[in-house]
Specification:
It is built from 24 helices and 13 strands. With about 550 residues, it is of the alpha/beta class. The protein folds into three domains: about 100 residues, no CATH class; about 80 residues; about 300 residues, Cytosolic phospholipase A2 catalytic domain, CATH 3.40.1090.10. The chain starts with a helix and ends with a helix.
Length: about 550
């Protein structure tokens, strides 16, 4: 086995390679390679061999193989030592009492495989050719799904799809399907998913890009829901059809997911919020303080996760883009890095990495996982661990995500103008109101601490100065009282809603102007031009 492994190492050193992590492996055959079963031996053979050179144990063999592979990789590449040495150290530190199957399943959580850009290009080209060669709808479905899975896990493969004209061919397939007497909606959804992964974006439905951004703020998200209800009444359309792009952070992420991913009615959104406050935010002070000391979270994080999972299911972010009327949306979280935090976007679309794309992100995770990663305010819930990464509440670094949403829209629709930007705040204290409380409890202190580091008005002032007033609309009602993030008392929630309704009545003209801007349609000439561009793109 050692000779064979050394041969592979020598062979790999002659090839220009790059190392990437691959998915977790629990293949039992790996155990038979690293730890072969000992062959039964005769007593005479055992006694005679003991006088000769002692053979290395299975543990020593594994150590030598992995260490040699690491050394060879470092000599060839100059990178990857940290990952390889970690695997080597963990293997060599094993105890003999552990079973061989447990060793493979627990210690070798990741393996390293060699992939060259040429190999990636060949694989991508082969999958695209197989899609084009398929004749029946069933075979096309299978091969498009295989290609989508490849693009999802290998984002760099997108660099090769343009040369193979993947997007024009998928648009051609979708156009052909629409002209059939009986339309296969499931097949169209699979095509739309692959188009999303190939970075294709349809033109906005309105005159330009219509953007919705929702701040964080805990239970104060009820303020945004009621403001959206007034907009919906004035426009006469569901929220998910009147915006091209939605973006939310913390509680805004919950609203964006409910509206963008699941198209939940606003009345149902409000009921879910109230039920959530009475279910998750209802905890005794003794339990809360005890949990805060032991887990750094006042509330039961596991109960919160179970609530999200039961309401949102196992749907992937990517799968929310299957319908043609689904908006593009993102959920913002704070990824923990050695020097602090950096923004991370959970998207239902794909963006090709370039010098113009400033934020990391992915569409491969589930909706509830994205929401959980964005809604873990310090002191309220524990941080979220996902695939070896640690996520904190997105509001810690971007509690007003409007500027991030604008950046993403410019990447998605680089040639389009901004038609309307609606930025929803979740309440602010009135400047002339002095709160009567002389001392604050623990929850009030936690809420004030989070509010102090998640101020949203600085971004508002910048955008107010940069964007035209007939395009940018900031809706952030004044509150008569200081409502904490985890407010669950019914009378306080009702007061919050009364304050919101007062703001809506006092700013009715602003809402009317906003609705008028949202309903501006794309001109017939522009729609004809879009159609001609798409036809030329498909057939040339």
């Amino acid at each position: 086995m050692l000779n064979h492994s050394q041969y592979l190492i020598k062979r790999s050193s002659s090839i220009r390679t790059s190392l990437i992590y691959c998915s977790q492996s629990t293949n039992s055959s790996l155990a038979s390679v690293l730890f072969p079963e000992p062959k039964p031996t005769d007593k005479n053979e055992t006694s005679s061999s003991s006088s000769t050179t002692t053979k290395p144990t299975a543990k020593q063999q594994a150590q030598n193989v992995v260490s040699s592979a690491a050394d060879a990789a470092v000599n060839v590449l100059g990178v990857g030592w940290g990952a390889l040495s970690a695997v080597s150290n963990r293997i060599t530190g094993l105890t003999s009492s552990q079973s061989k199957e447990a060793i493979v399943n627990k210690q070798l959580q990741t393996i390293v495989r060699v992939i060259t850009p040429e190999t990636l290009q060949q694989r991508t080209t082969s999958l695209i050719d197989s899609v084009k060669a398929a004749s029946s709808t069933l075979s096309q479905t299978i091969r498009i799904e295989e290609l989508s899975n490849h693009l999802l896990h290998q984002p760099d493969a997108n660099y090769f799809t343009k040369k193979q004209r993947l997007v024009p061919y998928l648009l051609y397939l979708r156009r052909q399907e629409y002209h059939k007497p009986v339309i296969d909606k499931a097949f169209i959804g699979i095509i739309n998913e692959c188009l999303t992964l190939a970075n294709y974006v349809q033109a906005p439905r309105g005159k330009g890009i219509r953007l919705l951004s929702i701040d964080g703020g805990g239970m104060r998200g009820l303020i945004s829901i009621n403001a959206l209800r007034r907009i919906e009444d004035l426009v006469g359309e569901p929220i998910h059809t009147m915006f091209d792009y939605m973006c939310g952070v913390s509680t805004g992420a919950v609203i964006a997911a409910m509206l963008g991913a699941f198209k939940v009615d606003l009345n149902q959104c409000e009921e879910l919020y109230k039920h959530f406050s009475s279910t998750v935010f209802h905890r005794s002070k003794a339990l809360g303080i005890s949990s805060l000391i032991t887990n750094q979270s006042y509330y039961d994080t596991k109960s919160f996760e179970n609530y999200l999972r039961s309401r949102m299911g196992e749907r992937l972010m990517l799968k929310t883009s299957l319908d043609a009327d689904s908006p593009k949306f993102s959920i913002i979280s704070a990824l923990t890095v050695p020097n602090g935090f950096k923004l991370f976007l959970f998207r239902n679309y794909s963006i090709l990495m370039s010098p113009h794309a400033h934020y990391d992100g992915t569409s491969k995770y589930k909706v509830w996982e994205a929401v959980r990663a964005s809604t873990c305010a310090p002191g309220y819930f524990e941080e979220y661990f996902l695939d070896g990464n640690v996520f904190q509440d997105g509001g810690l670094i971007a509690n007003n995500p409007t500027s991030i949403a604008l950046h993403e829209c410019k990447l998605l629709w680089p040639g389009e103008d901004i038609q309307c930007v609606v930025s929803l705040g979740n309440g602010r204290p009135a400047p002339d109101v002095a709160f009567q409380s002389k001392s604050m409890g623990l929850r009030q202190k936690l809420s004030s601490l989070v509010d102090s580091v998640t101020n949203t008005e600085t971004i508002h002032v910048c955008l107010h100065d940069l964007l035209p007033p007939n395009i940018y609309f900031r809706l952030n009602p004044f509150m008569s009282e200081d409502f904490v993030l985890d407010e669950h008392r019914p009378e306080r929630l009702e007061q919050m809603l009364r304050d919101t309704q007062i703001y809506i009545r006092q700013n009715e003209y602003k809402f009317l102007k906003l609705a008028q801007q949202l309903t501006r349609l794309r001109s017939p000439f522009r729609r004809l031009l879009d159609k001609l561009k798409q036809l030329l793109f498909i057939y040339t």
